[in-house]
Design a protein that fits this description.
Distance between the termini of chain A: 42 Å
Structural class of chain A: mainly alpha
Number of helices of chain A: 12
Helix content of chain B: over 70%
Number of helices of chain B: 13
Order of helices and strands of chain A: HHHHHHHHHHHH
Distance between the termini of chain B: 30 Å
Oligomer: heterodimer
Largest interface: A-B, 93 and 94 residues
Shape of chain B: globular
Number of strands of chain A: 0
Strand order of the largest sheet of chain B: 1-2
Largest sheet of chain B: 2 strands, antiparallel
Strand content of chain B: under 5%
């Protein structure tokens, strides 16, 4: 009895060193974000002295037409990329899981390419393709590149969900007189809806924040917000960027919370599992 | 397949296959055109030339490939590899204790803690890096704190040094190491740790000889996920480093935007891909071997 308790205590012994590292890690993880948020409310331009609370830089952002145009463009790009990649990606995931043929194995491989390619390579490649086809870089080219990039995410997320779905519910629908296509439309897609919505929100957030791909495929005007931020911070302190960054941060956190909450709103598991890395 | 048991349905098999093919077709076509074709284009242009006006011309010359032998490029490539590997090592050093602490002591807050690590990763990369560069700046909070406790003097700098670049890369990508490691630790049989303790191994020995081997696949996956973006990054150098620290991503960026030498830029891009593919093949061989051992 005593020996057993001793062992239990041993197994539960707190890993003090690991806990200390974790505490420091969390501090370092959040301090930079805290700095951006804090100094977005600074009344002065300084990034070292906090002078007093003010909404000055938020006001400056709202008066900055260039940044507002970029914001509008980023929103448009994210919406189009979300719609395009969800339609293509969901169809691809369904086909990949249910149908097993040569096209499927090819598609399965191609879909993995963006995940194992550094973004700078896909960025350069997309830029060369557009230039090679004689297409002027513009909002449209950013949209096309972002759709390509996002299809993989949607397919990877949806693929495991389709695989977890019992194909017999489709069979049952067909036994009740539905055609195969009706079964997919009326049974499979509704069952996948929470995952589809969650992946759509995730794609929106990722595309909105994406920088590398947007940087290589954007034209002159307007440029996506992250590209604007990039040129701004290369030229020294720009307090307006703190305000923009804070707003983007709030937006991303909101969207991620939404993506995680969607499956629960539908009252079932099996939506988006960010944490297990699937 | 459930249908094979039902003969009447066999006739529908062809129709079914056709539906799945139609579903796959648009996405596959899209990816083939916008991804595969564009990557082939990069590979092809690596053998091209530029005309006197600076426009890229396709051709079949090896000038760009031989240009890569230039010692200047070799230095940058080796530096990029070095920074990426150090980044990977630092990420491992951070991720192991963090993943371990959360997996063993997280209790019911495990998911909350992991979410707290993942959420900042979804904040805009540039904004995060910018905030980090402010923290690391010469009169930023970190150096001020270090000076206050005597760990740094007035001349100590982080920005504009290699340390700054690696710090940027670590901050950017450490989450890619923590998540697979944490997943591996969650899957790990904790009775192994108790067994190690029962055999009178201290915490450190148990960790090194039980936990680390049991989670090495997670660590290997994390290394690949960190190396990939770290090798191609060009933002960290711009915000944290100086001209002496440029990486291959900066070279590529420069050839496409400032230098206007797209064929050379393409050659450099292919070089980056080649280095990463080599690493990837090593990883795949390693995991195959692990799996084969697990089966045996």
């Amino acid at each position: 009895m005593r020996a057993a308790r001793g062992r239990r205590r041993g197994a539960e012994r707190r890993p003090r060193f690991a806990l200390a590292v974790t505490a420091v890690f969390f501090a370092l993880l959040y301090v930079p974000i805290g700095v951006v948020v804090l100094y977005s409310f600074n009344s002065q331009k300084s990034l070292t002295v906090f002078d007093g609370v003010s909404l000055r830089w938020y006001g400056a952002f709202l008066r900055d037409d260039v940044l507002l145009n970029s914001l509008g463009m980023s929103l448009r790009v994210s919406l189009v990329a979300m719609a395009g990649s969800v339609v293509l990606g969901v169809a691809l995931a369904l086909g990949l899981v249910r149908g097993r043929n040569r096209l499927g194995s090819f598609a399965g491989l191609v879909m993995l390419v963006p995940l194992i390619t550094p973004e700078i390579v896909t960025g350069v490649a997309a830029m060369l393709l557009f230039k090679g086809l004689g297409i002027t870089l513009s909002t449209t080219t950013v949209m096309l590149a972002e759709i390509t990039f996002s299809i993989s995410y949607v397919t990877v997320i949806l693929r495991s969900r389709v695989a977890a779905l019992n194909p017999e519910i489709e069979e049952a629908a067909m036994d009740l007189g539905a055609t195969r296509r009706q079964a997919v439309r009326l049974v499979t897609l509704p069952a996948l809806l929470p995952s589809i919505l969650a992946s759509a929100v995730l794609v929106f957030a990722l595309v909105f924040d994406d920088f590398v791909l947007a940087y290589f495929t954007t034209g002159v005007d307007p440029q996506p917000l992250s590209v604007r931020i990039y040129s701004a911070i290369r030229f020294g302190v720009q307090p307006t960027i703190n305000a923009v960054g804070t707003l983007m941060l709030a937006g991303s956190v909101g969207l991620i919370a939404l993506a995680l909450a969607i499956p629960r709103l539908f009252g079932r598991r099996g939506g988006l599992d960010l944490l297990s890395g699937e | 397949m459930a249908t094979t048991a039902r003969p009447p349905r066999a006739a529908g098999k062809a129709a079914r296959e056709r539906l799945w093919t139609w579903l796959m077709l648009p996405g596959t076509l899209w990816m083939t055109v916008f991804l595969l074709a564009s990557l082939i284009l990069v590979a092809t242009l690596a053998f091209g030339t530029t005309d006197p006006l600076g426009n890229p011309r396709f051709g079949f010359v090896l000038d760009n490939i031989t240009a890569l032998a230039d010692p200047a490029y070799r230095t940058v490539l080796l530096r990029s590899l070095g920074y990426a590997l150090v980044t990977c090592a630092v990420c491992l050093l951070i991720a192991y204790p963090v993943a371990y602490a959360i997996a063993t002591s997280g209790g019911r807050y495990k998911n909350v803690l992991i979410a707290a690590i993942v959420v900042p990763f979804f904040a805009n990369y540039l904004v995060r890096m910018y905030g980090w560069s402010v923290v690391l700046s010469d009169d930023g909070p970190l150096l001020r704190a270090l000076r206050a406790i005597g760990l740094a003097d007035g001349g100590t700098r982080i920005l504009q040094t290699g340390t700054g670049v690696v710090a940027g890369l670590v901050y950017g990508f450490v989450v890619f190491m923590i998540i697979p490691l944490y997943a591996a630790m969650e899957r790990m049989d904790t009775s192994l740790i108790e067994a190690g303790r029962d055999l009178y191994a201290g915490p450190l020995r148990t960790f090194l000889f039980v936990t680390v081997p049991a989670t090495r696949q997670g660590a290997a996956a994390g290394c690949v996920l960190v190396l990939l973006p770290a090798m191609g990054d060009f933002v960290s150098v711009q915000l944290m480093g100086g001209p002496d620290q440029i990486m291959i991503g900066n070279l590529i960026q420069d050839k496409f935007f400032q230098g206007q030498n797209w064929p050379l830029g393409s050659a450099l891009t292919m070089l980056l891909m080649a280095v990463l593919l080599l690493g990837m093949l090593g990883y795949l061989r390693r995991t195959r071997k692990d799996e084969a051992e697990a089966v045996r």
